[in-house]
Amino acid sequence: MPNEWVGPVVALRDLTRAYGNGEAEVRALVGINLEVAAGELVAVMGPSGSGKTTLLSLAGGLDAPTSGNVVVEGVHLSELSRRALARLRRTSIGYVFQDYNLIPALTAGENVALPLELDGMRAARARKLAERALEEVGLGGLGRRFPEEMSGGQRQRTAIARALIGERRLVLADEPTGALDSQTSEAVLQVLRARCDAGAAGILVTHEPRYAAYADRTVYLRDGKVVGEIGGAGEPEPKAAQAPAAAAAAGVAHGEAAGER
Amino acid sequence: MSVKHGILALLRDRPGYGYQLRAEFEESTGSTWPVNIGQVYTTLGRLERDGLVAKTGEDAEGHVIYEITESGARELADWFARPITQAQRPRDELAMKLALAVTVPGVDVAVLVQTQREHAQSTLQELTRLKVRAAAPHLAWSLVLEAQIFQAEAEIRWLDHVEERVCRTNG
Known about the structure:
The complex is a heterodimer of chains A (261) and B (171).
Chain A (H helix, E strand, L loop, with lengths): L9 E10 L6 E11 L4 E5 L6 H8 L7 E6 L2 E2 L5 H10 L1 E4 L11 H11 L4 H14 L15 H13 L5 E5 L7 H16 L3 E5 L3 H4 L4 E6 L2 E6 L8 H21 L2
Parallel strand pairs in A: 3-8, 3-9, 6-7, 7-8
Antiparallel strand pairs in A: 1-2, 1-4, 4-5, 9-10
Chain B lengths: L2 H11 L4 H11 L8 H13 L3 E6 L5 E5 L1 H12 L11 H11 L5 H25 L5 H32 L1
Antiparallel strand pairs in B: 1-2
Helix pairs in contact in B: 1-2, 1-4, 2-3, 6-7
């Protein structure tokens, strides 16, 4: 993939995913259009069964659409060989799932290094990068622990380190805060946000408004269709939403002054 | 909370004058509650009439300085000790609107809920940005900000609940 790509990192074009045929056909997604640029984090919200996870699987090339296109940095995924698609998934796309998906027989460091090693990197170098990725998520020095020796929050951060290692330009997170406590969840979101601020494109599936609020945009799905969106470019910000924020922003300066009393 | 108790709380800290009290009031509420100076003077007048504050004279610049009285301090302590009751809060306009929407024919409740949800989520997004950007926030300020975050979140959860119930009733 060309590094100088300037278009959206991922573009979903008129995407439909149906299961079954004829009368029994169930359409999980219908006519979805979504673009995510570098530096942007987009939240996808909606009730269970609205198509959130299907959207994420399609965007990451884990599933193929019935019609429409998934374009990652200008490359149509449908035109890639299985091998080329697997390579793209390994090198450019990071996935974070609710249930961590760590390999129990491998240490945290080995789990994180795995995608790089699968891609042919030498083990010593991959481990070194893994150690750095673990540091980035606040787990420096824990690389030798096995998943069962870690807390839920540590496991999830390990999964995030694995998703972010290397030059992942697209990060896909499906309910990454799962059963984590709120403090750990906020930390996980901040890592995701920081990675997007550093230039990755992110899609975050969540049912928590509080975590969706870390995104630049939120897209609402219902019955496989987009029923609403906030934060999109060119859309006027609601006035009432700005008022308390602006006032509270002024409060930052005041707050500091008050703190000196 | 009323401006009355805000002023009593500030004067409990130290004596002060109108403009100063107004600035401090806005600071301590994270600037989420703007008050005008007229309101401050009217309130000071009433507090003085009721014997809760007293004038102590003027400072070098001619500001009239007020201090809290003993009964003022008692009223403030009572206020901190009492819970805020539902009756002291304004009526929930959104709940009333939804109640009317499901009663009056011809209102698309799903659209109403989605519009409100998007608005609340935008607010939540703005508040979250402020929270993330504030490196070393003042405690009072972050508490007020977090209260707004919880309120926006609660509103969205309630809207989800309304949507689910309305869909179930219709389906």
